[in-house]
């Protein structure tokens, strides 16, 4: 097997690793494909088989060791932009019908919501501004 054959085989290996990467979305396969590409470059530069394999292993392990923890941290972080019900928590609303521990109505984000007070002993009168603490189903909990 000559040098041209070696780098071609490394590129075939890189493509072979890239196809399941696209199908399974496993980033580790992409890192191995990049390692195989580095092995192809080493073969193209005339390195021996041992050096090619060492370059493949070193690049693959380095990428997995560096990129994987960064990706895991990014995946674990909550989105910066709150959406849906989470976006309504902490907003202010206006009381439309008296709100107490048993119920009432508020205008929240341009919509009419059923509401009840967080403290069952508290009541809020029409026109008062309240803060939304939580959303339980279709009911806003206010204070």
UniProtKB/TrEMBL annotation:
Domain NfeD-like C-terminal: residue ranges: 85-142
Residues annotated as transmembrane: 6-23, 53-71
Protein name: Membrane protein
Keywords: Membrane, Transmembrane, Transmembrane helix
SUPFAM superfamilies assigned to the protein according to its UniProt record, in alphabetical order: NfeD domain-like (SSF141322)
Pfam families cross-referenced by the UniProt entry: NfeD
Subcellular location: Membrane
Domain of life: Bacteria
GO cellular component, one term: plasma membrane
Membrane topology classification: Multi-pass membrane protein
Primary subcellular site in the record, as a coarse category: membrane
InterPro entries in alphabetical order: Membrane_assoc_protease (IPR052165), NA-bd_OB-fold (IPR012340), NfeD-like_C (IPR002810)
């Amino acid at each position: 097997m000559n040098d041209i054959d070696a780098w071609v085989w490394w590129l075939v290996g890189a493509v072979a690793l890239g196809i399941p990467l696209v199908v399974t979305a496993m980033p580790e396969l992409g890192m191995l494909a990049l390692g195989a590409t580095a092995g192809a470059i080493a073969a193209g530069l005339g390195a021996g088989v041992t050096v090619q394999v060492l370059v493949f292993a070193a690049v693959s392990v380095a990428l997995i060791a560096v990129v994987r923890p960064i990706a895991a941290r990014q995946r674990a972080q909550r989105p910066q932009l709150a959406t849906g019900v989470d976006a309504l928590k902490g907003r202010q609303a206006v009381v439309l019908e008296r709100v107490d521990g048993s119920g009432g109505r508020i205008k929240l984000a341009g919509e009419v919501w059923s509401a009840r007070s967080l403290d069952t002993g508290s009541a809020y009168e029409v026109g008062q501004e309240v803060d939304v603490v939580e959303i339980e189903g279709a009911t806003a909990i206010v204070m």
